[in-house]
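Supplementary Methods, section 5.1.

A reviewer requested that the exact input to the structure prediction be made available. We therefore reproduce it here, unchanged from the version used in the analyses.
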Amino acid sequence: DKERMSHQMNENLLGRVRKIHTDQKGDTYRRIVNEFNATYPKVHQNLKTAYPYLTEHEIGICILGFLSFRAKETAQLLGFRENTIGKYRSVIRNKTGVNDLKKLIRMHLE
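The structure derived from this sequence is encoded token-by-token as follows.
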């Protein structure tokens, strides 16, 4: 069924992302976002269409949030301070009206 298949895709993606995050080779952030985009090719464009005022960094932070990265990990990947990520998340909530980054991405998976 569709829900089980979606859950399996997420589990496979999370496994690949954990491996990328652990090996720390090259631009880890870009590799993680590319892996997400390969699994869910429509999400980026769906977000840009629904919220054209979201920046690329904000979309990346949404993706990392969907992938369960904490603010500290997200900050390390982007080279920001942890409190900067908190500010970005607040801006994202204000721009989209959605409080949960995972929910925001889930709304645009298809």
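DSSP finds seven helices and no strands in the chain. These observations are discussed further in the main text.
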